Amino acid sequence: MTERIPEADNFIEEFIVEDLKNGKHGGRVHTRFPPEPNGYLHIGHAKAIVINFEIGKKYGGKTNLRMDDTNPSTEETHFVTNIENDLRWLGYEWEGETLYASDYFGELYEFALRLIDKGLAYVDDSTVEEIAQQKGDIDRPGTNSPFRDRSITENRDLFERMKAGEFPDGSKVLRAKIDMAHPNLLLRDPVLYRIKHEAHHRTGDAWCIYPLYDFAHGQSDSIEGITHSLCSLEFRHHRDLYNWLIEALEIFPSRQIEFARMNVDYLITSKRKLKKLVEEGIVAGWDDPRMGTLAGMRRKGYPPLALRNFCLRTGVTKRDNQQEYDLLEHNVREVLNDTADRYMAVLDPVKLVLTNYPADQVEMLTAERQPETEGSPALTEEALPFGKELWVEREDYQKEPQNRKYFRLAPGKDVRLKSAYIIHVSGHEEDADGVVTQINATYYPESRSGNDTSGVSAKGTIHWVAVREAIDLEVREYDKLFTDPTPMDHEDRDFLEFINPSSLQILAAKGEPALAKAQPGDTFQFLRKGYYTADPDGTPGKPVFNLTVGLKSGWKG
Fold first, then answer.
1. Which of 105, 286, 294, 360 has the fewest CB atoms within 10 Å, i.e. is most exposed?
2. Does residue 301 share a domain with residue 210?
């Protein structure tokens, strides 16, 4: 009985279903994710990762991780490590070991010799500027290089001597011999190899000639037997060269299919621009929580499930698209609402004193860590100390409320302290500038949560932390790094002009003592404030928390 082929949900899957029904490649599906190890992965890469791995999984296929490491000037081993960590964090494991284009340098060199022997490649002594002039433009055909008609014997000799290191950088290149009048400018005798006397992060000084991306990419796909080479739309014009090389070399016919890359408001996906932010000290590093890198979003506390959901929900399209930042945060909030334990922290503390509470008394109250949900009871923990002096949010107190629907702290108001008692506010103390330094109140002893026999009611509930047992927290409130949703779309302005000067605010906060057990990466909901994730910068005595996402959604979808 023939196994049922899953129905296609997008145009890429339609191609795959067609190939499977036709028995192409023996019914095999094999994709790959091929990053260049010259920086950290970003949100745009997440889209490509999800597409490649999820499609491979859906159709019973495999997905390779291959580093396209053909440029020794920019690539480093620690970038490889971070890429691998990012993929595993997202929840994906690739087929076998990590692969490298540099694994195939020997085969690629032999491919180049094959082109030379077929009269389809030649060694060119032209300079970079001369080659650019020879290319012509969209309205003007190119002109042949004066070295285009070298003999096969001469080209092979020169290319072998290039490999042997006889020539300096930039003195010669290997070009494909295609058509200098081709409507696709990329096929006007593209450069396939250049000389670079630089050590490679994996092969050391074994090579001084390196293939360009267009020569290494498709041939690496073919070597690995990749059936469907899925890449972003910017490589559409490269497909003609991709196919030409496969046909000229008579190698495995991988099929390139392009999809639209995903952009997100307020995040940039240019590695060069991201690197500039790091090198100029505008952010603290590649993993700064304001960055659009996966490392930054991981440190900020984004759950990998939320990113996968976001990439899947935004779909696979043929046109570049701009996604709302609020939609990204909506997916983060949706996951954290179900998974994050609830704790209390006061971000802008002012002291509240219960004048009728015994000075030496400490009660341990029951804190609700997870609310009751369908099929799951509430998760509680008796770990909440309560005493005479409490920290509360400064914004929760008003001397003279102007709104009759104001139900928080104010003279004469009754307010419920979360998981504790109802209190009656009697007044406050202030300094010479009129700044409130202490709020005074009394509590109703019979109003304890879960056992309230007081008969008193309160319309408002606020969070708090006991002063004596509170721990100090450093809280980093992150906002968008840019003031403009598309800072790179302004041709007449530098993207750095749109840096948000208020993208990071550091607060000296107070937290309940149970937060001392937080480990880097643990995410909690601070009641009434938002979701916060413990940062590696924290110490056992003073945790550091990053704002992951606020409680309220701005997405209107």
1. 360
2. no
